Amino acid sequence: MKPVTDDLIPLPPCPQCSSEYTYEMGALLVCPECAHEWSAAASEDADAEGGARVIKDAVGNVLADGDTVTVIKDLKVKGSATAIKVGTKVRNIRLVDGVGDHDIDCKVDGFGPMQLKSSVVKKV
């Protein structure tokens, strides 16, 4: 007898939190961990594209792994009394699918490792 799991089509992981426990609810896919809902058609389009996502900085330059960027506005850092100042250079960035809109993984001098939004940086 054939197992039931052979007939099922695997669902894509959640684009928000990367949870593998997604399920279908009508025409939508739902993540039970972060409650994110997205269209199954949009997920199929992303698979057809190869999942290639273009990440741009605040002025529209395309970012890549290893780039150096500068911060374009003061950023408050949770748990720290000081902020990351305008003009701070961040070297050797890595593009990731982070939490929320955070898509840059980096190490900021004086603050340590963190994730930044591409909308608050400019490519050098």
TrEMBL record:
Protein YjdM C-terminal domain location:
55-124
Q: What residues does the Protein YjdM N-terminal domain cover?
A: 11-39
Domain of life where this protein originates: Bacteria
GO terms of molecular function? hydrolase activity
Segments traversing the membrane = none
Q: Which UniProt keywords apply?
A: Hydrolase
What family does this belong to?
A: Belongs to the YjdM family.
The name this protein carries in UniProt is: Phosphonoacetate hydrolase
